[in-house]
Amino acid sequence: MTTRAGSGRLHTTNVPARLDRLPWSRWHWTIVIGLGTVWILDGLEVTVVGNIASRLSEEGSGLPITASEVTGVAAASYVAGACLGALFFGWLTDVFGRRKLFLITLAVYLGATALTALAFESWWFFLFRFVTGFGIGGEYAAINSAIDELIPARYRGRVDLIINGSYWLGAVGGALLSVVMLNTSLFPADVGWRLTFALGVVLGLVILLVRRTVPESPRWMFIHGRGEEAEALVADVERRIEAETGRTLPPPEGEITIRQRRTIGFVTIARTVFRDYPRRATLGLSLFVGQAFLYNAITFGYGAILVSFFDVRSDHTGYYFAVIAVGNFLGPLLLGHFFDTVGRRPMISGTYLASGLLLFGTAALFDGGHLDATTMTACWCAVLFFASAGASSAYLTVSEIFPMETRALAIAFFYAVGTAVGGITGPLVFADLTESGVVADTVIAFQLGAAVMTAAGLVALFLALPAERRSLESLARPLSAVGSREHGPAGATRTADPTGTTGPTGSAGSASGPSTP
Fold first, then answer.
1. N or C: where does the chain have the smaller number of CB atoms within 10 Å of the terminal CB?
2. Is the pTM of this model over 0.85?
């Protein structure tokens, strides 16, 4: 129902409650495949660059560049582009919608990746690594906001973690692909590495075709003056799911009234995030700094560690990294369910603390000379099994604890700041430490990453929210809301207050459908 009042139209809707009570369906799988698979591309990109560093620096690669420039300058360029892209496209995503931007950002990413394959000078390689990062940064903001707004509350934690963790499926592909492409008996030294980027473009084009079927977020639509379209979209999804399951959906519980508006100023968003939610802002920054430093600093140089300290051939590092990447993906896959059942706070803090402590142990074993290439890889698998689930939960956290109107830009801001702190300085520092050939230098880098990750876990232990199975609107009241009755876990009705903290006021119900997607 829409009425006109004041400076904008008042719109009362139960769209959030209707979306959250849906059972898992083919429609949700379309969203996961169309949006979530892009992290496979990101994992492919980053892993390939790390694994081809030694080959690019060799004579005959067709590119005058050193290994330290690949793992240092090029890596930092990619991350810097991702930071700026996240902020730029994050703002546009909140203004113009999720769907437009997740199509544009993928196009930017694909174009820049194709041009990277054509690099003939180091400056060209650096430039288009920056532009590639610019596109992928925008993806992080547009995709995570869309996923959380389309997935039912009781599945949101595990789905978000698995989707973000799918980055490591791309890492597996990139690791194995680099083994083949760096084999000079199959491809010339100046051709193989270019083909790895070209294959990434082909995969991206397939994803783009699937993504065209993913709709706009109904939550974004009803706030931005498109309430009738949102109602029609959700009604169509409900009809399709009822036809698929053969069952009538339970009635939705709770509705919200908002004052529709086209845009919200950047100052309003910043004031909301930092003045109204300072504890949540501290939590978001801590989680992103911790995970970004550990991953962007340490894993960028993993191939160099194998070559420098364990005499692994440069064209064989992909085998080791593929094993590590599998461990990374298994973390979110096996632990994701517990973020919706055991709860956000114990699982977020637990995964951060476990990975930090295990990394301290790995540093001690490496310093004592107790590791070889195989046991080092095993240690990293253990560390990153927990770290991957924790890192994925950072994106989940900032996408669900701030108001709807600020969601994409909030994701972008925390990603950009955290990645800038850990991702730009980390690779530059770590590249020098690993190239020194001194065990003590690498140990320092490991300990530094472990310390930051552990500190973030302690912050989460005190500040993380019990967001499991709760609607987005009950966690943070939309800025446009003028009075609402909102649904909570398993259908409980909630009354929101301006601070975004709520309590259940109705009895818990249940929605039909499978217990896991």
1. N
2. no
